[in-house]
């Protein structure tokens, strides 16, 4: 039976589509010719996830992160990751107040709705790990005291490829907390020509005004949470995760956390498509950006120059689709 959305659900989707269109148009004033990258960024935001933007220097990684942050009227903090950055710079530190004779907590840069981590893999693994608790549990523990982070909370981190000088590899636990990884890539010739004209005289990000706020994003997240996920699609996700763990090309398959984040992202993608139910197509569309950065290749696969994205693409072809994916409960 086809599931008919109720009027409240339809109204929620209409609001989501209107808001997402405004945010997308705002970002595309800065990031030209990359609609898929902008859409994935919005999917991760609505899925309550975190985004890792990886590419060579100069292709707009930080501009993408900043333009998304500028489009939402909420608290934003930027962290420039450098080799001398300390964990306390990220999480905060307790300082002894001479007048009150008590320790006072000074919040770090992670206490914001949107945290932009620039060149995250230029800091030491110890400092990178300062984000682990915040990204997974939306809280920070300092000196035995736990501080809850506000909603929405999203980390948008940029990193250069590991082959670049002065970079450290992200720990596996850190990579697994990023919902998706996106590569910006070089612009097309036409987009680069437009960029030389529009960006040459001034920085377009200075002209960006917020088109949404934190309260509105919280409402949109509630809409995404209500998107229906059928049992058949859940089984398909589990089959895909199991296939990564059994693959002869991988020495580390997808974690259970990756499955949770994949279905959250699929719900967001379905909502952005105007549907209140998830299809296998949504899972397939997001499988590579959500799963590939978490997987570790075997030595043989590396020698044969296979990438984790190639392995995920092969597994998508081999994993049977649900015979009759239903939209009903």
Describe what this molecule looks like in 3D:
Helix 1 (7-27) crosses helix 9 and helix 9 crosses helix 11. The chain has helices at 7-27, 35-46, 61-70, 87-91, 125-128, 132-137, 172-177, 189-198, 214-225, 231-246, 256-272, 280-291, 299-303, 308-318; strands at 51-54, 72-73, 76-80, 92-97, 102-107, 114-118, 139-142, 145-148, 154-159, 180-182, 212-213, 250-252, 296-297. The model is unreliable at 1-8 (pLDDT under 50). It is built from 14 helices and 13 strands. It has 329 residues and is of the alpha/beta class. Strand 4 and strand 5 form a beta hairpin. It has a five-stranded parallel β-sheet. A two-stranded parallel sheet has the order 2-11.
Give me a quick take on this structure.
Helices cover 45% and strands 16% of the residues.
Topology as a string of helices (H) and strands (E): HHEHEEHEEEHHEEEHEHEHHEHHEHH
How many domains? Answer: 2
Mean pLDDT across residues: 87
What's the assembly state of these chains?
A: single chain
Spatially, the strands of the biggest sheet line up as 3-6-9-1-10
Strand content: 15-25%
What is the CATH first-level class name of the largest domain?
A: Alpha Beta
Q: Could you name the CATH topology of the largest domain?
A: Rossmann fold
Largest sheet: 5 strands, parallel
CATH homologous superfamily of the largest domain, by name? P-loop containing nucleotide triphosphate hydrolases
The tally of beta strands, per DSSP, is 13
The CATH architecture of the largest domain comes to 3-Layer(aba) Sandwich
As a percent range, the share of helical residues equals: 40-55%
If you compute it from the alpha carbons, what radius of gyration comes out, rounded to the nearest whole angstrom? Answer: 21 Å
Global shape: globular
Q: Report low-confidence residues grouped into runs of 5 or more.
A: 1-8
Structural class: alpha/beta
For the termini, the CA-CA separation is 9 Å
Number of helices: 14
């Amino acid at each position: 039976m086809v599931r008919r959305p109720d009027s409240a659900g339809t109204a929620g989707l209409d609001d989501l589509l209107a808001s997402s269109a405004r945010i997308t148009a705002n970002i595309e004033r800065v990031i030209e010719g990359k609609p898929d990258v902008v859409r994935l960024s919005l999917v991760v935001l609505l899925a309550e996830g975190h985004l890792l933007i990886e590419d060579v220097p100069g292709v707009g990684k930080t501009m993408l992160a900043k333009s998304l942050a500028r489009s939402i009227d909420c608290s934003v903090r930027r962290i420039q990751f450098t080799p001398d950055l300390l964990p306390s710079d990220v999480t905060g530190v307790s300082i002894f107040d001479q007048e009150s004779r008590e320790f006072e907590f000074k919040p770090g840069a992670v206490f914001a709705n949107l945290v932009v981590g620039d060149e995250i893999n230029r800091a030491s693994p110890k400092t990178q790990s300062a984000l682990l608790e915040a990204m997974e549990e939306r809280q920070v523990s300092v000196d035995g005291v736990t501080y809850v982070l506000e909603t929405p909370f999203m980390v948008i981190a940029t990193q250069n490829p590991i082959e670049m000088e002065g970079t450290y590899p992200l720990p596996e636990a850190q990579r697994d907390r990023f919902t998706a990884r996106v590569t910006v890539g070089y612009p097309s010739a036409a987009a680069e020509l437009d960029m030389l004209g529009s960006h040459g005289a001034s920085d377009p990000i200075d002209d960006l005004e917020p088109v949404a706020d934190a309260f509105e994003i919280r409402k949109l997240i509630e809409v995404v949470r209500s998107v229906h996920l059928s049992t058949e699609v859940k089984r398909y996700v589990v089959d895909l995760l199991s296939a990564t763990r059994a693959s002869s090309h991988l020495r580390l398959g997808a974690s259970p956390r990756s499955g949770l984040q994949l279905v959250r992202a699929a719900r967001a993608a379905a909502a952005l498509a105007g549907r209140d139910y998830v299809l296998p197509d949504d899972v397939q569309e997001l499988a590579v950006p959500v799963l590939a950065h978490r997987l570790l290749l075997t030595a043989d696969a590396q020698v044969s120059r296979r990438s984790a994205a190639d392995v995920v693409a092969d597994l998508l072809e081999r994993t049977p689709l649900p015979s009759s994916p239903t939209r009903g409960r």
